[in-house]
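Deliverable D4.2, example record:
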Amino acid sequence: MAELVYDKDGRLLFTKEMKEEYTILMPQMLPVHFGMFQQLLILEGYKVDMLTTNHRGIVDEGLKYVHNDTCYPALLVIGQLIDAIKHGGYDPHKVALFITQTGGGCRASNYIHLLRKALEKAGLEFVPVISVNLSGLEKNPGFSLTLPLVRKLIYAMLYGDLLVNAANQVRPYELTQGKTDAMLDRWQKTLIDGFQAGKGMSRKQMRDNFNTILADFAAIPVSQEEKVRVGVVGEIYVKFSPLGNNNLEDFLLSEGAEPVVPGLTDFMIFKIFNREVDVNIYGGPWAKKKFCQIFKGYIEACQRDMIAALKKTRFRAPGTFENMHRLVQGYLGDGNKMGEGWLLTGEMLELIHSGVPNIVCTQPFGCLPNHIVGKGMIRKLKDDYPSSNIVAIDYDPGATKINQENRIKLMLANAKALARQEAEKEPAGAGV
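Output generated by the structure prediction step:
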């Protein structure tokens, strides 16, 4: 059994010996993206299980060890991890927990301390917690983000965004139910096999894969039915996680709508851009700013490749990060960057400009940054864009699924009524 090793501050380390013996438990946020992330980590020699549990017991475990005034995603992530240790059939002395840190003032940075406190309270203080970050916040001798691994994760992120984008535009219209999900599974396996063989890891190979992926999804037989498109924005976890948003995308599909979900790539670019903004506003090393510019530029170039591939097909393409940043000028400044910061408003603006005025803004109850740049901006957006149809939905342990869904149903009813009004206007306009 691996020896427990602590640093000078008393933090339990994940050692090289643990890498051989321990299973790393990883919470799920985006099923497609995180599924590929998991496989990439396995290829690096780590034993990794991605948690897909989704039941009330997770909330109950979170409430035991996290104050209920703490942000809902913290409660869910910590609850899911502790529930897995206690009820998932794992040896508590042979598991480690995996959580991301971005270095900001919100969930992705501070939950790691809440998690360690929760483990201590639960009598599991011997379970190591791995911080995954690009800021050098914490280091462990048994886990490291090498440059080759970071590059693979970036590619997996872009592939994930493309796969989800294409799937969301096919799934609501597929003539044979399950075809889209089967194609998703096939391409995830193909890409991981390619990573293992060293394929798909150049810009050219990625562009070729983009084209092939889109051709395969375009070949799935679909109906010509028109459906209401609904954008999904909000706090990063409840926006993406089925556990966090009560399976929102499935609900929208069941109501005859097409979910439109902005990808993870914009959020990643946003976080890198914020480091550059920090130097501009507060000062700092020139080298830090230059590195961020180069890193950001590389991901943006890859994003443009993805957008170009989509534009060559029948699929709708998202805008670039640069375009979103341009749209938000006059609404929020670059210094507004806590939580999703100006990005949340930017995503709503991009959706409206791309013909998706119907938007669900998902928010953890009590999350001040998100309420400012989410709910707080809705009135301004509606004033500037009268056709916009935006509903803010709070998610917390006490919020009932039925109330959330009823509010979304009302938004959908408004969307369908507006669509009918627009359809009635068209013949009159054509005759003039």
